[in-house]
C-alpha cells in the first residue's frame, strides 16, 4: 500500500507540474533575470522531488511493463533536470547557485536538494566479465612491474634501518622464547601438587569465578549509568527485527524482478514470432492493396501517378493518416519546396558566422526536448487513449468503429503483477507492422516506377538528396590496432596500468554541508564560496547521470570533458573513483608518471590515445582520467616532462575527442592542482566544464571531523572539543584532516581509548606539520577562474549590472532635482 500511495502521489504531482509548464506563457525577454532564475529554481526542485520519489518506486516494482514505463519517465526527468540546470547556469552566470531562499519558500530542507543516484545504473549495466576478471587478477596477484622505483638517499637508509632492526628483533624474540621454554621445563620438573581438601579447592574456584563475574557486571552497570547521564555516547545498536525484515523483503523483490524480467523477454520473443507467422502475410497483402488503391485515386484526381513518399517522411506511413490524395500531394509538394529553400539558405550563409545551435535556443527560450517524453510516459500510465492504427490493421481486423478502451498499465489490477499479454501483443503487432511496411515500400516503389514508364511514359524521380553534393574526401583515421582483438588490447592496458580498477568509494562519502547564508551574502555584495555539497551535486549532474542513461545523450548531447580543479587534498581523485563506482564505468588512468615510461617517442602519444579511446568506446560507460591535466598545456617545459612529448599529447587529445559521438557514454575527466600553470585558452578549449573545488567551510570541517572519527571507531565524548578543532583547521583540506586523524589514532592508541579518552590537544602536533591552503594560493585559483569563459561572462555581467544600477541612480537624482 505504501508503494502504491507513493506512486500515485508522484504521478499526481507530475501531472500538475506538466500542466503548469504547458499552459505557462512564453518567457518575457524583458523580465528580470533574477526572477526568471527563481522560477527555474522552483521547477528544478519540484522535478527533483518527483524524480526521487519515482526512483524509489522503480526499485519496488516487479511488473516488467510497469518498470519499463517508469524508466521512460525517469530518463525524461533526468534530461529535464539537466536542461533546467543549463538554463540556471546561463541566468546566474555560475555553476553554483544559492537555493536557501527557494528551499524556504517551498518548505523544503537541504536534504531535498541532494540528487539521488539511480540504483538501476548498476543493475542494468552490461558487465564485461572478462575485463573485471582480469582487473581482479591483476590486483590479487600483483605482478611484478618491469620498472623500478627510484628511492632517495634518505628513503634508502630508512629502508635498511627498518630491515636491520627487524632482524635484531627476531633474534631477541627467539632468545626470549627459548628462555621461557627452559623456565617452564624446570618448573614442570620441580612442581609438586598441593594437598587440598575438595571443599577448600571448590572455595578457591568459586572465589575466582565470582570475582570475574562481579567485575564484569560492575563495568556494565557503570557504562549504562554513564550513557544515561549523557557522559559517553550510546553504542550504535545493530539491525533490529524491522530492519532485518526489510532486508529480507528487498532481497525477495530482487529475485522476483529477475524472474519476471526473464519471463518477459521469453514471452516477448514468442509473441512477436507468433504475430509475424499468423498475421504477417495478411498485413503485407493488405498494405499492398491499400497503396495500389492510393495510386489509382491519385491518378483519377490529378491525372498522373504521384511520387512515393521518401523514407525520411515516413514512407507509406504518411499515406495512412486519413487524408485525401489531394492533401497528401499538397503536403509532398510543400516539403519539396521547403527543402529547396533550406538548400538556398545554406549556400547563402556559407560565408557568414555560424548561428547558435538549437540547444542554445532552448536554453534561452526555456523550451524542452524532454517534456514531451515525460508527458507521454505519464499519459500512458494515468489516462486512457485511443491507439493510432493504420488503415491496413483496421481493414485486417474489421475495426471500422473501434471503441475507446483502456491501456493503462497502472490500472491493470492483478495482485500477482504478471505480464499483460494483451498490451504486449499490441506492441509487438506495431513492431511487426513497421518491419513489414519497410519491405512493402521497397516493392511498391519499384511497382510505381514501372507504372509510370508504362502508363505515363515518365521516369520516376529518384530522390538522391544525400548524394546531390559530393562530399569532400576526408582522410579516414587509420586504425592502428585493426588486427588485434579487444581482449588483447585490454590486457596491454592493464599490464601498463592504464586500465585500473576504481577504489570502492561512493559519492555519498564525499562529506560536505549545505551553505545556509548564500543569498544573504550575495545581497551584501559578497560572492559566497561554494560548499562541498554543491560540488557533489554538480559531479552527479554532469558525470553520473549522462554516463548512466543512454536516453539523455540521444536528445541532449552534453559535454564530453570535465575538469576538477582545486588544491591538494580536496577530494578530486575520490570524486573520479566515485563516478566510476556509481555508474559501473571502466576507469582509464593517464598521468605523466606512467606516460614517461610506457610509450616514449613521437608515436607513443598517438598510439596510446588511439588505444585508450578505442577500448573506452567499446567498453561503455567509460571514464578517461587525466591526472595533472595542466602539464599537457604548460606554459614552460620542465625537466620532468621532457621525456614524453606533452605537446604531441595535446594535439592527439584534441583529435581523439573529435572522434567521440554525442551518444557515446565516454567522459574525459581531468584533475589539476595548479591550473594557473597552463595556457588558459587551449586549456578551456579542451575542458568545456570546469568545477573549482574550494577548501571546506566551518560546517563542512565539523562534519568531516565527526564522520572521520566515527569511521575510525572513536566514541565522541566531552573531552573532545570538535568545534575548536573545526575552527583551528581553517584552510586545511579533507585530505589533511584524514592524514592527521590516522597519524594520531595508531593501533596502540585505539586500545587505550576506554581508559584514556581522546583529546583535541593530541591533533595539534600533527596539524603543525601540515601546510594549509594559504590565502595566496586561494587567490591564485580565483584569479585563474576569472579568466575562464564562465568567469569572464560572470565578470562582464556583474559590470553590466553595476552600470544599470548607476544609470538608475542618476535618473533618480535628475527626477529629484526637477521636482525641487
From TrEMBL:
GO terms for molecular function, please? ATP binding; ATP hydrolysis activity
User: Where are the stretches annotated Disordered?
Assistant: 340-362, 459-479, 795-820
Top-level division of the source organism's lineage: Eukaryota
* CDD domains reported for this sequence: IQCD
Official protein name in the record: IQ motif containing with AAA domain 1
* SMART domains reported in the protein's UniProt record: IQ (SM00015)
SUPFAM superfamilies referenced in this protein's UniProt entry, alphabetically: P-loop containing nucleoside triphosphate hydrolases
Q: Which residues form the ATPase AAA-type core domain?
A: 562-677
Report biased composition (Basic residues) as residue ranges.
341-356, 460-478, 807-820
